[in-house]
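Ticket #4471: structure output looks truncated?

Reporter: J.K.
Steps to reproduce: submitted the chain below (244 residues) through the standard prediction queue, then opened the result file.
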Amino acid sequence: MKQAPDTRTPDYAEPVAYDTDGRPLYAHPQKAQEPQIVHMTRPLEPAKPELSEEVRRKHDDSAQRYPHINLSEGEYVLRAVKRHPIGLFFPMGLGIFMIALILALLINFSALTDTLGLSDVMNVSTIIIPVLLFVILIALGMYIVYYVYTSNEFYLTNESVVQQIQTSLFTRSEQTVSLANIEDASFVQSGILPQLLDYGSIRLSTEGDETTYRFNYVARPKDHIETLNNAVEAFKNGRPVSDN
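Returned output as attached by the reporter:
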């Protein structure tokens, strides 16, 4: 006599056997559990971190010395990196040479016109005003070059790196990178003159977007990079960031 087939739906949640270690074995994989959603709440007024008197003093001092930098509470400047004056040598030297040459020709203008036989046609009074205006224009150009060059600044704080970029008289921008996002920091000194005068370029690369930041004509780049790398390491490991 044939036995009727079992048409009952098997209960896959029940184990069908056990292994040698006593762990249950199932005839069908169990359904994956639904992901658990946890709702986090944020207070309307988060508690402010406790700052030591030393950190507060350093922050106040940096805010007073560098009012043009937006410093967060407890943030202070470790290094203010300036450009080496070697970058001004050629434009300033050229401007001084041109002014000296023009003034020398102006002083000796009468003797020069007498030599060339042009004393009846030209005299000092007819050219002195245009010449002086040209000298003033050269001096103004020298000042603009100096202003743009020295306005490029690089600051290292205990939380971030701030680079202020001045590309022209009326074009200025600012880049801020958190120390947590800096992947690599290095410097380059290429040539005999940078080695002798101790200047070079600083290069920073960031994680994620792989952006590269450069700051040229930096005085003592090796010293600044050592401080920067120590600050990045301390910041990422949760240690206090210092200039030591």
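Triage note (M.O.): checked the attachment and the full token line is present. The chain has a mean pLDDT of 82.
Status: closed, working as intended.
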